[in-house]
Amino acid sequence: MQRIAHWINGDEWTGAAGRTAPVHDPATGRQTAEVLLADAGVVDEAVAAAVKAADGWRRASLTQRTRVLFAFRQILDARKEELGAVITAEHGKVLSDAVGEVTRGLEVVEFACGIPHLLKGGHSEGVSTGVDVHSVRQPLGVVAVISPFNFPAMVPLWFVPVAIAAGNAVVLKPSEKDPSAANLMAAWWKEAGLPDGVLTVLHGDKEAVDGLLTHPDVKAVSFVGSTPIARYVYETGTAHGKRVQALGGAKNHMLVLPDADLDLAADAAVNAGFGSAGERCMAISALVAVESVADELVAKIAERMAGLSTGDGRRGCDMGPLVCAQHRDKVAGYVDAGVAEGADLVVDGRDVVPEGDPNGYWLGPTLFDRVTPEMSIYREEIFGPVLSVVRVPGYEEGLRLINDNPYGNGTAIFTNDGGAARRFEYEVEVGMVGINVPIPVPMAYYSFGGWKNSLFGDSHAHGAEGVHFFTRGKVVTTRWLDPSHGGINLGFPTHG
Ligand code: NAD
Q1: pTM of the model
Q2: Domains observed in the chain
Q3: Across-strand partners of 221?
Q4: What CA–CA distance (Å, rounded) separates 283 from 262?
Q5: How far is residue 246's CA from residue 242's CA, in Å, rounded to a whole number?
Q6: ipTM of the complex
Q7: Has 281 been annotated as catalytic?
């Protein structure tokens, strides 16, 4: 049985194992590895190594740091497929999708390669006679990144390259469900020239997370996961004096107006609803259709769903399994609930015949029509291949539905009416908006993040906000003394 160990001080940790968790291949249901779960002692050891490394790394010049970033970028780009295969084997998403997430993560590495420009401060000459002021941004020290199962490469890459480029040491706590991608990337960072200890991978569950949240030497926490844990991480981390950005769950709506191209809207709904088996924080899970086109749109979506293959992600199927048996059962339970609550089950994924091992965690694409806001399949984040169509009379009711939802991660409008799109952009209370784009994940040089229960804290990931999050500002006032500055004056300094 393969054992997945922590990565501490630039190498696999060899201490006594303690608690472990099984890691499965979701397409076969077989256990492929066990991952170590850190206790408080290992957290201390990992953070101590990171503290030691942080001091040397912040002193490394911008040129030295960016050379490592560029080298890591080359390695990651050249070995995308290798990392993609590791992701598919533990997460289940199809290979092309796994490589796609690495590519989106790579964009953040490329963004972070520009850190010398991003860290430039301001300078004001002559704010007072003979006095100049300039500002710098300095690293925080040791920062923690806690990531979810659904993007084992991309989500760590939202934060790690920016934090490292800015001169911090990072302790990454990946999901225990698919932990191998983090170790592989850590080995590649070392190969790229990153000094030992600057990146640590600490595996574990709540115990490891709590250890990081309360550790006095961890200065900031970037978390991505479900809303209840995001809220907990934000509250606990900030109560312990840390800077925290905690990205939570989602319920993303796609509003389709009557003038939209319904074929393109149906394509988009299927791709965004069932890609990665709906296990994306930017997946479309609620399709809000204006009544006059709802029948036609539902028919087009159902027609496309009939052509989707569900199976082993290594076999060229459209959609893979769910991540674990427990999650598959939970999502299937929502399908049962939707039926019991009276929604129209148009396509039932519970009967899927997978292309692959029957013991995989299968659930096929599922479509509900005539879902109402009171139903649990509408209210709760399902995080699986279940698309719910909610019918509304028009734009106003659609907008109200979206704005009344407690989540605010992503949303999309499909229309050919520029005026309606512009109004939607202005009025919708959601952090990331797509206009005829169903999964509007921002480019790396913008920042990723939602509103309301989809984000706790005030900083989004990567882009300018990411650089700001991983640095703190300092303003320096300078005067080079000459004899005219002498004399005693206890009054408050003013400018002359
Ligand atoms: P999760 O909240 O169960 O786990 C996330 C991380 O928290 C993992 O590292 C896990 O080990 C840790 N954790 C779990 N339970 C904990 C506890 N009780 N105390 C402390 N730490 C704990 O989330 P998940 O199931 O891995 O990921 C899916 C969720 O993540 C979905 O809700 C999805 O919407 C969300 N997500 C959000 C975004 C975003 O950008 N907003 C991106 C990806 C995923």
Answers
A1: 0.97
A2: 2-248+454-476 (3.40.605.10), 252-435 (3.40.309.10)
A3: 144, 244
A4: 19
A5: 12
A6: 0.99
A7: yes
Q: At what angle do helices 180-191 and 62-78 cross, to 10 degrees?
A: 130
Condensed to tens digits (0 to 9), the pLDDT of residues 98-118 reads 999 999 999 999 999 999 999
Between CA 401 and CA 254 the distance in angstroms is 11
Separation CA 69–CA 189 (nearest Å): 8
Ligand 1 centroid–CA 202 distance in Å is 16
CB of 385 within 8 A of CB of 92? no
Asked whether 205 lines ligand 1 (CB < 6 A), one says yes
Q: Encoding tokens for residue 121?
A: 């401060």
Amino acid at 189: W
Does 148 contact ligand 1 (Cβ within 6 A)? yes
Atom of ligand 1 nearest to the CA of 213: 20
Cα-to-centroid distance, 91 and ligand 1 (Å): 14
Q: 3-state secondary structure string, 325-381?
A: HHHHHHHHHHHHHHHHHCCEEEECHHHCCCECCCCCCCCCCEEEECCCCCCHHHHCC
Packing angle between helix 227-239 and helix 206-214, nearest 10 degrees?
Answer: 30
**How far apart are the CA of 273 and the centre of ligand 1, in A?**
20
